[in-house]
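Appendix B.2, paired examples.
Example (i):
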Amino acid sequence: MLCLICLSGLAVTGQAPAQKKNSRPVTKATEKKAAVRTALTPVYFYNFTKPEFLVSKVHIEHDEAGIGLIRFEKKKLEEEFTVPIELSEATVELLKEHWENLGFLESKENYQSKLEYPHLGTMGLMMEKDGAERKVEFNWTDNKDVKALTDEYKKIGYEYVWKFELDVARRNQPLESPRIVKELDILLKRGQISDPPHILPYLNELSGDERMPLIARNHILRLAKSIGKKVKKEEKDGEKNSN
C-alpha cells in the first residue's frame, strides 16, 4: 500500500529506511555546489508543520533563480534531512506570478479563512527582499493565489522528497526501488509534480542504474517516454496555435 507524505493533507511517498545511511558522499563537485549555495540569498520561503503526519515538517527556500534547499522531518525520526533544490524556469515563473499577484510584501491580508482546519497542519509563507520582510501563517485560505502558490510548493516537496527516498533506496535498499518508482507514477497521474519535463534528465540517469531491479528501470523508462510524448504534443499544439 502506498505510504503517504502529507503536506497540508495531500499524499505521497514511502517509509524512511531504518538505517541512517542517507548522507551523500562528499566530493569536490558537491563541495563546490554547497559553497555556491551558501553564497546565495533566499528570497521566498514556504513552511508546513503537522506533527502527526508522516512528513511532519517541510521548509522550502529559494532565490530569484529557483536555487535553494528543502528541509524536512519525518514522524518519529529525530533527524532533519536537507536536500538542495534547483527549480525549473517554468516553475520559477509560475511561483513569481502568484507572489506578484498577491503583492505579498505590501499586503496586510493574513490569508486565513474564517473556517479553521488545524487538523490539516499549519502553512507559512515568507518573503525577504530589498530589506523588507513579511511572514504569514494559516491552516486554510480562500485566496486563490495563495492556494495556487502553496499547492505549487507542495508539488516541489513531493518531487524532492521522492528523489531523496529513491536515492537512499538505490544505494542502500535497491529492492525498495520498484515500490518508490510506482509512487512517482501516481504523483504524475495526479498532477502532483511541478513541471514534469524538468525531471526527465534525472529519469534518464536512473534508467541506466543497474543497482536497481530491471522492473524499476523499465518502469522509469515508461514514465520518461510518457512525459516526452506530452512535451512533443504540447510543442505541436503550440506551433499550430502560432500559425
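Example (ii):
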Amino acid sequence: MYRANAAAFHESLHGVSDVTTGIAQDHADAPIAQTETIGHYLVLAAGLDDVTPTDFTNAIENGTDPSPASIAETRQLLLDKKVGVLLYNPQTEDKVSREMRSAAESSGIPVVEVFETLPEGLDYIQWQTRTAESLATGLDSAS
C-alpha cells in the first residue's frame, strides 16, 4: 500500500512539473521579482530570472527591514516594468511588501500570490499546481 501511494503521489507531481516545463519553454529567463524568496524552487524549475536585489530578499527572509536603497531599487524594477510578475506572500505581508505590491499593480505587473502554508481545502498537489498555473497565467498576461 505504501509503495502504491508513493508511486501515485510521484505520478501526480508530473502535473506540477508539466506546468513549470511549459513556463520554461514559453518564458525562458523571463525576469521576475519577489517580496521574499518563497518561490525560489518554482522560479528555478520554471527557468526564470529573479532580479530582485539580494539585499532586499535577504532582509525580508531574516525578518529585518530592507535598506532604503534596496527598497528603492526593487520599487524601480516594478515601476519601470523590468519584470513580468511579482511573486507575493500575503502571509508575511508588511508595509514594505504592500508597497511593492502597490507598485506592481500600478504598473500593470501581475501579482502572483505564493503561500508558505497549505491553503484550507487543498491538498499538496492542488496547492503547488495552482501556484504554478498562476505564475504561468501572470507571465502570459505580461507578454
